[in-house]
Input
Amino acid sequence: MQARDGHWPAENSGPLFLLPLLVIGLYITRTMNIILTSVHREEMVRYIYNHQNQDGGWGTHIEGHSTMFGTVVNYVALRLLGQPSRGGIELVENASRWIVDHGGATMVPSWGKSFLSVLGVYEWSGNNPMPPELWFCPSYFPMYPGNLWCFCRLTYMPISYLYGKRFVGPITDLVLSLRHEIYGIPYHEIDWNKARNSCSKEDLYFPHSFIQNFLWDSLYFIGEPLLKRWPLSYIREKSLQKAIKNIHYEDQNTRYMDMACVEKVLNNLV
Output
């Protein structure tokens, strides 16, 4: 784990979703083989297997019970790192079985839905809206993203851009295969509207309130269709420009390190 210049980088090994999101980002940008040596990939696979729970899943962190978020992103990472879905690797098959037995990947919480959408194994229509137009709100507005806690703000910023663009990475044979592996029903039969508010009980900390669901549905069924039509589509385009301006600002002011691992991957994708 020693770096090329002789030092040992700081370790951030508690959360079990940081490494998989990096792998997803590298796969989408087709830089996996440029950034990672075969030894890096081998050690990444070893690390993921070492933290797999006995039931076949992964937690959101290394000491946590298995969650849909932890299990889906780590399973996807293993597949992107070259592990086969079948063929005698029991640990991979156990993970796939855990996902399907617990309702499939439509039950993953919001961050999982966003990253799977970018990868192409989940549809953007299965996400609750993350409108970039909120960046145009005045700073005193309660929903202005600039007033959010730093981790929320700097995660929402690139996700709102990717959502506004409905960006999807290259649809490869592996991506198409994953669409069959992490759902209990055929991909084309999934009800994406229902999937928006689906969340595994293992991941659910606090259920949506009636008011929250009403706001999501209003944005989903009324707001988004209107914003796709002229002249409101002009607002969407200007909002995307403002979002990416903020993203460049964050990159430049942190010398392209960004505040944290998730934000770095998202900004890199943007």
